[in-house]
Amino acid sequence: MNHSNLTTFHSRIVAVNPLAGNLVELLLERPNHFNWQAGDYFWLGSDETQLKPFSIANLSDEQSDHIRCDIAVTEALAEWWKNLTQATSCLIKGPVNQYHWPEGDAPVYLLAGGTGITPLLALLKAHERQLKDRIVTLYWGVRQQALLFAQDELNRLMQAYPNFHWQAIISEEDELWTGAKGNLPDVVMQTMSQVTNYDWLICGPWPMVQLLKNWLIDQGVKPQQIQ
Questions:
Q1: H or E segment at 167?
Q2: Is a pLDDT exceeding 90 seen at residue 97?
Q3: With pLDDT > 70 as the criterion, what percentage of the chain qualifies?
Q4: Are residues 84 and 125 in the same domain?
């Protein structure tokens, strides 16, 4: 992923709100002329050498003064996060289109791992009216039930639109969890036998994404059906 040719904007942190565990919601000041579409991502860092990509969580006409992204502050990101939050300003590059709502009326499967839910949820909200007539299914894999930070919004969509269904998959042992258990790719590959007639959007850790894309292609899904 090369960001050298992207437009650079200056911004600053407006707020950092805890979501769950090591997950935070980061609100940034929206620079003038920075416009995006649901499914886009951008590069963020304290300076040019610190840039990392993150999906944009909010819609361009929603809370228009801010850009929101959901970040898992892992050990690998600890130094980057420290530099970002201690800086008086930050750099943004982008936006970059990554996902778009599939055209046509084929059923859609969304597969999200961790904070990979962010761009997929933005797409669902941006195209909410299409959920009236189109069958859309989301699988969201996380380590623990407590990390399902978007479940209220997903439950709202499921209650409002009978054609939309979502299911969480928990990978760590939890005696109180009665839903699907295991790793997202394993659950999908073990439970789905017919996969060629759907559009697929996959977002999460790169090994997970690559594994699922390769499996779908091996099952006969055309590359143009997969994002």
A1: strand 164-170
A2: yes
A3: 99
A4: no
